[in-house]
Every structure is written in structure tokens, then in C-alpha cells.
Amino acid sequence: MSREAHVQFGERLRGKFPWPTHLDLSIEKEFFGFDNMNDPEKAISKKKQRLALQNLSTACSRYVQNDLLAALRVAISQQLETTEGWKLVVDPEDPDGQTLQFEYPSTTEKNAYIRPW
Which of 36, 95, 100, 104 has its CA 20 to 30 A from that of 86? Predict the structure, then answer.
């Protein structure tokens, strides 16, 4: 089973937060156990393929909202040596629940943010 994650970094933040402004993470479907019989690409019908894709999307959402979110919160708080002044949350505008937002102190108003998509 492949347990690979591919990361693409965006523009780095200025000052105290030396991370990219966005991070694209791609995880192989095998990471979630979608290989062999439950692989959407190997489904024997369109109905089974849709169901497998829906199950894969749900597994991804759970991973992002639970395991990944918790691990990143720990890593960020260790790097910054604080849990104050920033937060990491599930993006309420992502209908799939597969996007996290890292909020940090800024000199611009929050509603002045331009979404990347």
C-alpha cells in the first residue's frame, strides 16, 4: 500500500510565519485503503464507481478534518512555541470539508482576502 503525500508550496508568508500562503496536498487513494476491489477506477459499473468515489471523498474529508488538522495544529504550535495569535480551521466555504484555513495576524482586513479559486 502506497502512503505517499505530494506537497506543493505557495508563496511564503512574511515575518513570523515562514510558511507558504497555501499548501496543496495530494494523497494517493491507497492511503485511505481504496485499492483492489474498492478502487473507483476498477468499479464494474457507473453506480459502483460513483459510490466508491463518494466513499473516497468522505474518507478524505474525515482525514483532513481530524488527523491532518490535529497534526498540523501540534506542528504549528511547536514551531511558533505558542497556541496564541493564530488558528487553523476547516474552511466553512468548502462543501467537501477538505480545505483548512490558517489564520494569522495581518495588517489587512480579514474580508479583504482574495480566495485562490
Answer: 95
Candidates 13, 6, 26; CA nearest to 86 is: 13
pLDDT exceeds 90 at position 20: no
Q: Is 0.85 surpassed by the pTM of this model?
A: no
Residue 64 burial class via C-beta count within 10 angstroms: exposed 0-12, middle 13-18, buried 19 and up: buried
Backbone angles phi, psi at 79, to 5 degrees: -65, -45
Q: Facing residues of 6 across strands?
A: 26
C-alpha cell at 20: 507558504
The domain spans of the chain are: 5-112
CA 117 to chain centroid, in Å, comes to 15
| d(C-alpha 65, C-alpha 103), whole Å | 16
3-class DSSP state of 113: coil
